[in-house]
What does this fold into?
Amino acid sequence: MAHHKYVVAFRIGFQSSLEYRFNFFLSLFSAVFPIVVHYYIWTAVYASSGESGLFGYSYQEMIMYTIIAAVVSKLVITNMEHAIAEDIKSGGLNKYMVKPIAYFGFRICSFIGQRLIYVAISLLVILALTFALNSFYKQHTGLERLLAFFLSLCLSVILSFLISYALCAFAFWLSEISYFFVVTSLLVNIMSGGMFPLEIFGEGLQQLFRYLPFHYMIYFPVNVLNGKIADGLIWQGIAGQGIWIGLMLIVCHLAWKRGMKRYLGLGG
It folds into this structure.
């Protein structure tokens, strides 16, 4: 029954998502405003440029990217950094050190439980948006791309968790971590393509971003669905997501192992 405690952690996360589901719907609704702003901005940019394509995107592809990326970004954001930092600062880790459950195992099982219903709802929203955009712009997204998108989206959620968990280790060294999380979340959102397609930053920065894991969180799954990534490169990208998940597991282990040497356990 060693696995039972992690099932309980999953159930706690799932129940939490049911209790606070209004927050998720509110979060999705909050994505509407930036979508509207980006829609009018890109409409004006394409109209004034007189070009049928900018940064390698047609007008239809850019609008579709903007809308889908806004929904995906709301899904992959973990929003757990402050809770973990509080456990580190207040001594909340103590109870996991004396009980037969690993803190990482508890957090990831709870996170998966929290995200399960969100993934299901977000997929329904994304599928509805894709169908509407395809009908409006007379495009076609095949079933194979939809399945590849679903797989890449699940991997991006896991990758996002691992990146956030690794960043939380800085709480062992920084006395005030809130502003650090604000800055890093903004940078991660930019480098992951949550605000604009990475092509907008130019060839140099785009190549740099491709050597980092962040573009696999939003940019890659959205462009799988958008049709911008060639069929032959989809599974190569999914393999890249898997490799980065493995690497981030190692980074998380090393960062937290070193951070725990500084942990005082005060207050818990």
Remarks:
- Residues 85 and 176 are 10 Å apart (CA to CA).
- The radius of gyration is 20 Å.
- The beta strands are 53-54, 57-58.
- The mean pLDDT is 83.
